[in-house]
Amino acid sequence: MSTHSKTQQTAPEVPVNENTEAMCGKAGAATNHSNCEAKAVANEVTASPKEITAALSKWLLNKGISQRLFASKILNRSQRSLSDYLSKPPDQMPKTHGRVIWLTLDEFLKSKSQQDALVSEFKTGN
Question: How confident is the model at residue 44 (pLDDT cuts 50, 70, 90)?
Answer without folding.
Answer: low
